[in-house]
């Protein structure tokens, strides 16, 4: 008769609590888990294409005209001053979208547009021609226009770059925590013999894994909240349904973490030491980080690649979290993505179970 | 130790541990009596640690039987774990936790209540209670490791090369700590490859090589047996050793930062 295994609640909590404490004193965890994603958010939040504005150069002599004052009132257009020669140089350097030159003597104006960015050049051109058409009409004294264009603003959500970018950062942080921390954490416990010493106490292997997992869930929650808080306070990240959206984000983060942790366990089983962990985690984390919708929408990739990228684990997560944060849908609307994550986690946990070794 | 109290604390019978074709432990049998300090001696790779770790329930034997405190280690693994104290050959502690945190954590794992400061005091570590484990010196780490073997108030304590890498002062100090543990009435099983340590500490010894036990006895018996074969040291033994000289010159005070 084997003796009954002892109660595991106390050991479970001890492993989660002290594992977490040790983890938070580790600089690498703190850096990759918190500082790294925040650095990305600040870098892209401030310098990113969020203010992708049209800049038009207008020399000083052209700044007394009505055209100038009309253009300067248009949102999203910034006006650069300078001599015509300077402005032309900046235009060829790609720093300006267009340069508007007022011909001396006549009332004619000349618009120079950059070939570097065709789309922006088009926009600059239509802005300027719109303004000029309006000026022409008023100069010609026409008041009753045959065709009136009325523009009505439909209450659309102001979609900022941070609204796209931030959910991707949560995805990245969760994936990195789940894979790196789990794999490194277990290898570290093996190498420092902490695992062996714990096994000399009446503590089960599963208790250790679950306890470690609990510590990771807490880290992931903290990461998500820090990222969301930074987004809301500094960049005015849109929380469509307020607190409820935060709850959904947290819920999704936990699901994502649990799904991704399978890969970390798998790596911990395959790797023999810390050195072999690095390439393995990189293979899993970085390609996904680059293509699976963290920095740019998957739709921007070549069409032939998209079907493959869309079924990556991080792509499912990013798609789900963006639906929640940008479309404001409820959790049942992201069921297909959750199913995708589930499928991946089954694969990962089966692989982990087959490779996992305690020694 | 007196003859009548010879109850076995650890009973090893025909123990074999194979790694692929290599027999790390090759059919050994021995008993450790309650209340003694039992040494397992041998060169590196002799199978000492493997034997110890099987008894500690950390490795599974290929075949054979071990009883610890009367319990079969395979059938009563959990009970055995809570009745023994274990010091591993190297560390085994979160480097980034303080000594008090580590003691509390292990108390939770053993599911016992402890006074961490009292334990640290016993091993003159109370002023290190807030230090991270990784900041300790080699001797302090070994003392702390020894301290953790007492958390669950075990009957039997296993020590795997506790003094390896220590300076003479550290080693002498640790011997005293081990003797103190022994005085609490605990059975101590220790591996070492220092003969002097074995001679000074152990009531009985087993000498292992290539996975086999080649001799068991008290230090005196083993020496007398050798002398009977006509063996003599080449040089006359002096009444002091070089270690005595060293300790006499540098003092027994622990050298720890």
UniProtKB/TrEMBL annotation, chain A:
Keywords in alphabetical order:
Cell membrane, Membrane, Transmembrane, Transmembrane helix, Transport
Q: Which GO terms describe its cellular component?
A: ATP-binding cassette (ABC) transporter complex
Known InterPro entries for this protein? ABC-2_transporter, ABC2_TM, ABC2_TM_bact-type, ABC_2_transport
- Locate the transmembrane regions by residue number: 28-47, 164-189, 214-235, 241-268, 280-298, 304-321, 333-352
Compartment annotation: Cell membrane; Membrane
| Major localization listed first in the record, in broad terms | membrane
Q: Where is the ABC transmembrane type-2 domain?
A: 121-359
**A molecular function GO annotation:** ABC-type transporter activity
What's its membrane topology?
Multi-pass membrane protein
Q: Which family does it belong to?
A: Belongs to the ABC-2 integral membrane protein family.
User: Which named protein is this?
Assistant: Transport permease protein
Q: State the organism of origin.
A: Candidatus Curtissbacteria bacterium RIFCSPHIGHO2_02_FULL_42_15
Automatic annotation (TrEMBL), chain B:
Q: Kindly state one GO CC term assigned in the UniProt record.
A: plasma membrane
SMART domains, per this entry? AAA
The protein's name is: ABC transporter ATP-binding protein
Please name the source species: Candidatus Curtissbacteria bacterium RIFCSPHIGHO2_02_FULL_42_15
Hey, which family's this protein in?
Belongs to the ABC transporter superfamily.
- The UniProt entry lists the main location of this chain as membrane
Compartments where located:
Cell membrane
Question: What's in the keyword line of the UniProt record?
Answer: ATP-binding, Cell membrane, Membrane, Nucleotide-binding, Translocase, Transport
Enumerate the spans annotated as ABC transporter domain.
Answer: 10-235
The signal peptide here is none
């Amino acid at each position: 008769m084997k003796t009954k295994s002892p109660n595991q609640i106390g050991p479970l909590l001890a492993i989660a609590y002290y594992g977490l404490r040790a983890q938070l004193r580790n600089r690498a965890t703190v850096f990759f888990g918190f500082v790294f994603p925040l650095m990305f958010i600040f870098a892209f939040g401030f310098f990113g294409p969020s203010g992708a504005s049209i800049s038009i150069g207008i020399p000083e002599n052209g700044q007394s005209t009505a055209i100038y004052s009309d253009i300067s009132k248009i949102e999203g257009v910034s006006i650069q001053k300078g001599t015509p020669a300077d402005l032309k140089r900046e235009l060829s350097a790609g720093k300006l979208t267009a340069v508007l030159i007022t011909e001396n003597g006549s009332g004619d104006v000349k618009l120079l547009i950059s070939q570097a960015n065709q789309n922006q050049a088009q926009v600059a051109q239509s802005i300027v021609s719109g303004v000029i058409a309006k000026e022409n009409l008023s100069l010609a004294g026409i008041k009753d226009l045959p065709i009136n264009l009325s523009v009505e603003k439909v209450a659309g959500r102001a979609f900022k770059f941070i609204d796209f970018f931030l959910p991707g950062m949560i995805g990245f942080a969760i994936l990195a925590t789940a894979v790196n921390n789990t794999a490194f954490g277990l290898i570290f416990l093996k190498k420092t013999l902490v695992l062996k010493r714990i096994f000399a106490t009446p503590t089960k292997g599963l208790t250790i894994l679950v306890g470690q997992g609990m510590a990771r869930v807490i880290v992931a929650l903290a990461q998500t909240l820090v990222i969301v808080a930074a987004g809301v306070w500094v960049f005015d990240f849109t929380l469509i349904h307020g607190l409820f959206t935060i709850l959904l984000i947290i819920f999704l983060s936990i699901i994502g973490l649990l799904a991704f942790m399978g890969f970390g366990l798998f790596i911990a089983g395959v790797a023999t030491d810390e050195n072999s962990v690095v390439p393995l985690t990189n293979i899993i984390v970085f390609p996904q980080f680059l293509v699976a919708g963290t920095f740019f929408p998957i739709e921007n990739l070549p069409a032939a690649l998209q079907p493959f990228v869309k079924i990556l684990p991080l792509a499912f997560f990013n798609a789900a979290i963006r639906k929640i944060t940008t479309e404001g849908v409820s959790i049942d609307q992201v069921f297909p993505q959750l199913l995708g994550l589930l499928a991946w986690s089954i694969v990962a946990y089966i692989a982990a179970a087959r490779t996992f070794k305690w020694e | 130790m007196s003859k009548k109290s010879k109850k076995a604390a650890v009973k090893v019978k025909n123990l074999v541990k194979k790694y692929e074709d290599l027999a790390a432990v090759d059919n050994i049998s021995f008993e450790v009596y309650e209340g003694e300090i039992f040494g397992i001696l041998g060169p590196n790779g002799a199978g000492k640690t493997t034997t110890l770790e099987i008894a500690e329930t950390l490795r599974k034997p290929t075949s054979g039987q071990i009883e610890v405190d009367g319990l079969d280690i395979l059938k009563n693994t959990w009970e055995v774990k809570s009745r023994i104290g274990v010091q591993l050959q190297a560390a085994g502690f979160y480097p980034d936790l303080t000594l008090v945190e580590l003691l509390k954590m292990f108390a939770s794992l053993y599911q016992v209540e402890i006074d961490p400061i009292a334990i640290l005091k016993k091993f003159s570590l109370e002023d290190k209670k807030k230090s991270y484990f990784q900041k300790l010196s080699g001797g302090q780490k070994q003392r702390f490791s020894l301290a953790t073997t007492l958390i669950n108030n075990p009957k039997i304590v296993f020590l795997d090369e506790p003094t390896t890498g220590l300076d003479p002062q550290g080693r002498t100090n640790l011997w005293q700590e081990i003797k103190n543990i022994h005085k609490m009435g605990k059975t101590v099983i220790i591996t070492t490859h220092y003969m002097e340590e074995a001679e000074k500490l152990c009531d009985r010894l087993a000498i292992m090589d290539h996975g086999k036990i080649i001799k068991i006895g008290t230090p005196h018996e083993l020496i007398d047996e050798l002398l009977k074969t006509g063996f003599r040291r080449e040089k006359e033994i002096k009444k002091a050793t070089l270690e005595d000289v060293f300790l006499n010159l540098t003092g027994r005070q622990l050298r720890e930062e």
